[in-house]
Amino acid sequence: MSTTDLDNAAAPPAARRFTVPVSLARYGAALRTPRGMIAAGILLALTAIALLAPVIFPQGYDVQSRDRFLGMSTQHLFGTDEYGRDIFVRTVYGLRTDLALVAIAVPVSGVIGSLLGLSGAVWPRFGNLMQRVFDVIIGFPSFILALCVVVVMGVGFASTVVAITILGLPGFGRLARSGALEQQNREYVVAARTLGVSRRRILTRHIVPNTADPLIVHGAIFAVNAVFIESGLGILGLGVQPPQPSLGSLLNVGMRYVREAPTYPVGPILVLLLLALALSMLSDSLNERVNRR
Amino acid sequence: MLRYLVHKIPSVLGVTVVASMVAFALPRLAPGDPAVALVEGDADPATIEALRAEMGLDLPLWEQYLRWVGNLLQGDLGNSYLLNRPVSQLIGARMESTIELTVAATLLMIVVGLVFGILGGSRLTPWARTAVDAWNTFFIAVPAYLVGLLLILFFGIYNRVLPVSGEVAVLDDPNFGLQYLILPALALSLPAAATVSRLVQTSMLTNRGEDFVDLAVSKGVSPRRITTRHVARNSLGTAAVVVGLRIGDLLAGSLLIELIFARNGLGSLAVGAVQQRDYLLVQVLILFAVVIAILAQLASEITLAALDPRIRLG
């Protein structure tokens, strides 16, 4: 009998009940792959500059001047726009908007979708109904569905969040449902059931933790889509509205003035590509290391 | 096959019906009374009431819905109150542009997708393989509208090689029409082509490990012939399905592409209708898009079954 066993036995049950729901070691390993490291580095840098934007550029994104449509220079990294505002500052604030969108919409969509999927695995009837609902959502081409949301809610940040959330539901829901159904028939779950463990405990202790990994990886994949949905809506002029910048709306205005200022859209495009690249590299490395099949 | 189709009818119909309900519900969920929105300035309640009655807004919801669907099924798509023209006329006028773009993009997608797919599945020098892989990875990751923006910047602004805004009907003037068509069609097709070629490549690499390839090698068949006759040919079934699946995407993607290239297609009609709150038009366009997407998906499943005898639908 080793000391650790005694320690564990002596520990209060409340402390022992806490377990990390997914094995964090594999996430660490994913981040230590070359791709994961680059992705994490880019994302950290982008997040840091976006979070610190009010500190670095306390004057805000709406400072106008007479220097309209300047090209790229050391003073204005990405040039200036139609009101003489610094495009680099606006891009950083736009990145802030996009990151906020991803940080809100992706987890919300993930949690709601997973709950719907899990409930579907527990109550088969509800599950069948949800499958049909997901079929309908998938039947809509993604930007058409986003248009529907804009029709009902009007343009703006909120409707972009809702559009992304709805578009994400089928992916998360189906993954959660199939994962839970697969786990239900595993031997350890059957064993737990035979031992008389309650249904609720089986669900929370065994099934949920073991279906979480693919869902988290899918979240990283879906984050890329979320960024692209935002910028797509922005380009259509149906996303976040001026004067608040987002990467999409910057592209929309930038392409309008591209003849006066040929480098206007270049900065926002680069940042958008960088963000998308980092997110997809992250999802790739997570997919390799965490999603064991 | 017939059994499969019959089996599939409930789900296809179900999705279509629900989509029609969503499309029907949209203007009613949107803030504001459509009748009030149409009246210029202040109008007396009697006028508004009359307009409501004319639009059928005073009927119970289910009756409005049945009427709307009934009219749609009879080919009466209703009137756009803002533009004061029948919706069918508006759609008809814009259809040619969208079809032109989608057909051109589909052709390009097939050609580019197959060329890069077969290249990727062939024996290549390491450098060539890296190039093909990088091409595919980039275009799989990037959405069509970003490719469009990049094409506009490179070929329309920095080097003024091709027109990037507006259109000329190809049938009226093939020379100028194609010049206007080529960039939007490329933008729309390259991302889709990359998914096609990735799949063709994977399927070719799998086929290369099959016994019949080993047999051909041992018979002394030339490597080129093995690639074309034994490997590539067996991978085309996969390609056909993806192509079918992607056509629906292309149509949906044309929404954004039309807008950034300033083409007058259905996509820009839809976006304009949303911006101006022309709900009757929006409804029909949304339903139209969903039905086409569903049909494209169904068609590609059937194509697969027809091409590959190992797959039995049903």
Fold topology:
The complex is a heterodimer of chains A (293) and B (314).
Chain A: H1 3-10, H2 13-17, H3 24-32, H4 34-51, H5 53-56, H6 87-122, H7 124-139, H8 142-153, H9 157-184, H10 187-194, H11 199-235, H12 247-256, H13 266-289
Chain B: H1 2-29, H2 34-38, H3 45-55, H4 61-73, E1 79-80, E2 85-86, H5 87-121, H6 126-141, H7 144-158, H8 174-208, H9 211-219, H10 223-260, H11 266-275, H12 279-307
Antiparallel strand pairs in B: 1-2
Helix pairs in contact in B: 1-12, 5-8, 5-10, 6-8, 7-8, 7-10, 8-10, 9-10, 10-11, 10-12, 11-12
Transmembrane segments (chain A): 37-57, 99-123, 143-169, 215-241, 261-283
Keywords (chain A): Cell membrane, Membrane, Transmembrane, Transmembrane helix, Transport
Domain ABC transmembrane type-1 (chain A): 95-283
Give the low-confidence spans of chain B.
none
Q: Just name the CATH architecture of chain A.
A: Orthogonal Bundle
Please compute the radius of gyration of chain B using only Cα atoms: 24 Å
- Biggest sheet record of chain B: 2 strands, antiparallel
Strand fraction of chain A: under 5%
* End-to-end Cα distance of chain A: 35 Å
Task: Indicate how many domains the architecture of chain B comprises.
Answer: 1
Please state the second-level CATH architecture of chain B.
Orthogonal Bundle
Low-confidence stretches of chain A: 1-15
Q: Look at the helices and sheets of chain A and give the structural class.
A: mainly alpha
CATH superfamily of chain A: MetI-like
Distance between the termini of chain B: 7 Å
What is the H/E string of chain A? HHHHHHHHHHHHH
Q: What overall form of chain B do the CA principal axes indicate? A: elongated
What report would you give on this structure?
- The complex is a heterodimer of chains A (293) and B (314).
- Chain A is mostly helical and 293 residues long.
- Chain A has a single domain, classed as MetI-like fold.
- Chain A is 73% helix and 0% strand.
- Chain A is built from 13 helices and no strands.
- In chain A, helix 11 packs antiparallel against helix 13.
- The longest helix of chain A is centred in the last third of the chain and has 37 residues, at 199-235.
- Chain A is elongated.
- By secondary structure, chain B is an all-alpha fold.
- Chain B has a single domain (87-313), classed as MetI-like (MetI-like fold, Orthogonal Bundle).
- Chain B is 78% helix and 1% strand.
- Chain B has helices at 2-29, 34-38, 45-55, 61-73, 87-121, 126-141, 144-158, 174-208, 211-219, 223-260, 266-275, 279-307, and strands at 79-80, 85-86.
- In chain B, strands 1-2 form a two-stranded antiparallel ribbon.
- In chain B, a hairpin with a 4-residue loop joins strand 1 and strand 2.
- Chain B starts with a helix and ends in a 7-residue tail after the last helix.
- The relative contact order of chain B is 0.14.
- The mean pLDDT of chain B is 83.
